[in-house]
Amino acid sequence: MNPYVIQMDRFAQSLKHLSETFLSLEEYKGAFTKDEVEEMFLRVSESVCEGCEKKEWCLKENRSGTRQMVYEILCTVEDYGAELNIEVKRKLQKRCVRAPRFLRETLEVFGDAKQKLLWNNRIVQNREGCAVQLTEFARIIQHATRELDAGIFSDEHLEKRIRARMKHIGVKLLSSVFFMTEQGRYEIHLTVKAVKGQCVTSKEVAEALCAAVNRKMLLKPGERQNVGGEYCVLVCIEGPAFYTMQGVAKIGKGCEKISGDTFSMTKLPGVKEAVVLSDGMGSGEEAFKESARVVEMLEELLEAGFPVETAIQMMNTALVIGREEVRFSTVDMCVFDLYEGSCELVKAGASATFIRYADHVEKIVSSTLPIGVVQNIEIDRMKRELSDGDFVIMMTDGVLDALPVGEQEALMSMFIGGTGMNNPKELAHHILEQVLEWTGEEPLDDMTVIAVGIWSV
């Protein structure tokens, strides 16, 4: 096995062992143990009963009865809060000459213990979240390393052809690295420089590479524009068979300028494109900040090459363990594979998505929770094959909720299927206008519609 793969496996195993260590520590506790209740009883009795004329009888002769009284108080507080029922108060007053102080001290001790229990459980929850992420990191490292090792290949004949083509346009080739993706597509890294006195555009290099390998090769986004007299590395990838165009229409609650919905359209590794739509809790500026944080972080993780589900789970963990109050955001994502002409829909608490094919409209729904609510989140994933001219329409729940209950999805399918518009922006605006016209009133929630069309190159 490749020594680099072995080394990365060691890193991954270390992360897995660290994760197992986290999980082997103190577990989540839903209630107090017998010893903890006894400790609370001792604290209360030491504080209240000192100097009391009935101390000997309460704490020795009738100790079990006194302990049972404390236990009843704690159970009542756990169920109903500090407002005890009359029966429990009457029992305490009959048994204890210092009943008000005894009750006050018991409630205070219980409050301290309850707070400690909550914090300990919070620590356990955070530790479990970290353990899950460490395990996922280990899996990603192993998968990426093996994928890279399996994809790299050498081809002396192909390299000679590339070198000859580069020489023809005035470029010197120092080395080349060939990589084949899981889909059988080429990615080629060229270390090149222009011969003395010349300046060659990177586009010319890519065109020469196309001629050499007899495949449609494109510069990877972000590559330099020109090749000069110093060696540099250019990365070229095999061109896609499809391309997409997007259009957006949105309006804030009550026609406000600030909407709590946020969206992003970004290019991903492997000639993929992702559309992310998030609806923050509530509306207005606070909801916008929440959804924008989610979208920006997801965008960064996806561009770095993290798997979709891992990126969402990491974002969810950050939201759950990062603060006291619950503030959730929906995640609606569509990842387009421009090689295959397919899309993967990923939903966490998101509204329905509609796909307009040539002859019908399909609705795709999900019943999952938004991110930021619970530690272990469920994510719905669905893949669909697309053809030239198909449209994927995503929207936030404010759009569908504006339509009559029970007719929402049928009406939306009618709005989408009843028009032959092929301009994404016009289609998105048409759908939003149809909804607003149907309701005949100002939006009661933020509304966003995204229309994405896909076509053959």
Automatic annotation (TrEMBL):
It comes from the Bacteria. Signal peptide: none annotated. The keyword Transmembrane helix does not apply. Keywords: Hydrolase. Gene3D superfamilies: PPM-type phosphatase domain (3.60.40.10). SUPFAM superfamilies: PP2C-like. Residues 246-454 form the PPM-type phosphatase domain. PANTHER family: STAGE II SPORULATION PROTEIN E (PTHR43156:SF2), STAGE II SPORULATION PROTEIN E-RELATED (PTHR43156). This is SpoIIE family protein phosphatase. The lineage of its organism: Bacteria, Bacillati, Bacillota, Clostridia, Lachnospirales.
